[in-house]
């Protein structure tokens, strides 16, 4: 009997080893994260390099070797990851002091490619790990992406373009890290499951006054974000309509360039890649802040001065002609603020109004002060978001006049904040008239 008991553990171990041989050993999380991000880096590089090769194959890059085309593709891969490029032959000589320029214009549409690839990888990493071990997969993923950026920056430097190795190593981690974190959170379903921190339990331990203040602040932030996103959507719709109206002018530029089938395809992809930038420029235009297209060219609803522009088809749709009524477009951000004020009334509780009304007896005064404060807070947050959007959409092309391209960051933020604040205050006051109680209606 004792012999049988001794044989049972050995048999169990043998069966477990056989089962392991059949199913295989699980991949370590850090290695799985590295593998997922390596796929993302390679796939995004292919999407960039293949159109470049197609142009080179059809004779688009004269007197350039395949090595030079590969380096250009690597430079573009770094650029869509927001890595600035130092152009060394912008002028007549190679000396950087005579003709150098900084190319830091980010094509946001192309930046979405690595972002969504990393977002997908983040979901897969979260699906394969527990909350307390998720960091292993993320660290492995970011580590391999860091090496990809360093390797690319080391290979693409030439006599025309120089890339900082430190920037090439670290900056690509920003869109990649944002993608993996958001993707992991999407898979986890909540930040609490993602990081193991129960925010609801922590809030429940705070005082009632703290919860009221936090609820008010959160509703204000959501209202400001809603106002900015709605303004962005209105700017996108306006840009689409404007492109449709000027489609003949855009087609004429294509015909004058005669880039061929491959060239037209790559040119169209490039314009699609900067479409989010153009939407943010349209947002700056409707606020009145405006945007610049090179030194001396300013376009806004209040003033338009346009100098010589490059032959890019989409630029044929710039607003021209009689713009005396263009100021009316500044009402669009006011409408977005109105909807934010209505949103606050529906989902938020105006605890600030309760606090003010307890200290000021005159209801008309307390309500007026709290409503003005609400509008200012909502508008201020929308303006802060505008600072980030305008900064990301602009930059320098490093060529001649085009060292200044993009929205007027401060003016756009200030005007948007004022317009949204006005709309939010009016929307909060008027929206009760638009609400209907189904019980009372019956």
Automatic annotation (TrEMBL):
The transmembrane residues are 37-57, 69-90, 102-122, 134-156, 162-184, 216-239, 323-344, 364-388, 409-430
Which keywords, in A-to-Z order, does the entry hold?
Membrane, Transmembrane, Transmembrane helix
Taxonomically, the superkingdom here is Bacteria
Q: Does the keyword Transmembrane helix apply?
A: yes
Q: Which InterPro entries match?
A: DUF6350 (IPR045931)
**Does the keyword section mention Transmembrane helix?**
yes
Q: A Pfam family name for this chain?
A: DUF6350
Q: What is this protein called?
A: Integral membrane protein
Which organism is this protein's natural source?
Paeniglutamicibacter gangotriensis Lz1y
């Amino acid at each position: 009997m004792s012999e049988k008991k001794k044989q049972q553990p050995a048999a169990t171990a043998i069966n477990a080893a056989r089962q392991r041989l059949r199913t295989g050993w699980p991949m370590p999380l850090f290695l799985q994260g590295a593998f997922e991000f390596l796929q993302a880096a390679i796939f995004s590089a292919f999407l960039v390099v293949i159109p470049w090769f197609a142009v080179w194959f059809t004779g688009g890059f004269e007197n350039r070797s395949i090595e030079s085309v590969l380096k250009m593709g690597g430079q573009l891969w770094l650029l869509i990851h927001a890595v600035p490029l130092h152009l060394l032959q912008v002028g007549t000589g190679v000396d950087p002091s005579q003709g150098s320029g900084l190319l830091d214009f980010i094509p946001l549409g192309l930046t979405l490619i690595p972002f969504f690839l990393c977002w997908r990888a983040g979901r897969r990493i979260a699906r394969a790990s527990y909350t307390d071990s998720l960091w292993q997969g993320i660290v492995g993923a970011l580590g391999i992406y860091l090496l990809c950026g360093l390797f690319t920056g080391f290979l693409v430097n030439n006599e025309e373009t120089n890339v900082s190795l430190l920037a090439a190593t670290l900056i690509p981690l920003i869109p990649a890290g944002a993608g993996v974190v958001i993707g992991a959170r999407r898979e986890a379903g909540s930040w609490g499951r993602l990081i193991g921190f129960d925010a609801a339990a922590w809030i429940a331990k705070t005082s009632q006054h703290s919860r009221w203040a936090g609820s008010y602040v959160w509703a204000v932030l959501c209202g400001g974000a809603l106002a900015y996103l709605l303004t962005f959507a209105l700017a996108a719709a306006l840009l689409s309509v404007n492109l449709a109206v000027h489609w003949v002018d855009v087609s004429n530029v294509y015909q004058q360039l005669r880039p061929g089938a491959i060239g037209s395809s790559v040119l169209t992809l490039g314009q699609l890649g900067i479409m989010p930038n153009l939407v943010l420029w349209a947002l700056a235009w409707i606020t009145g802040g405006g945007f610049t297209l090179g030194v001396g060219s300013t376009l806004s609803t209040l003033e338009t001065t346009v100098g010589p522009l490059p032959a890019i088809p989409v630029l044929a749709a710039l607003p021209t002609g009689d713009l005396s009524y263009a100021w009316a477009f500044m009402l669009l951000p006011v409408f977005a603020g109105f909807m934010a004020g209505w949103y606050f009334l529906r989902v938020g509780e105006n605890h600030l109004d309760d606090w003010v009304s307890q200290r000021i007896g005159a209801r008309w005064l307390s309500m007026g002060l709290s409503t003005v404060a609400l509008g200012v807070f909502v508008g201020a947050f929308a303006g802060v978001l505008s600072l980030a959007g305008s900064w990301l959409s602009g930059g320098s092309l490093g060529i001649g006049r085009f060292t200044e391209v993009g929205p007027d960051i401060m003016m756009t933020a200030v005007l948007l904040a004022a317009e949204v604040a006005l709309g939010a205050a009016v929307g909060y006051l008027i929206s009760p008239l638009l609400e209907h109680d189904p019980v009372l209606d019956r």
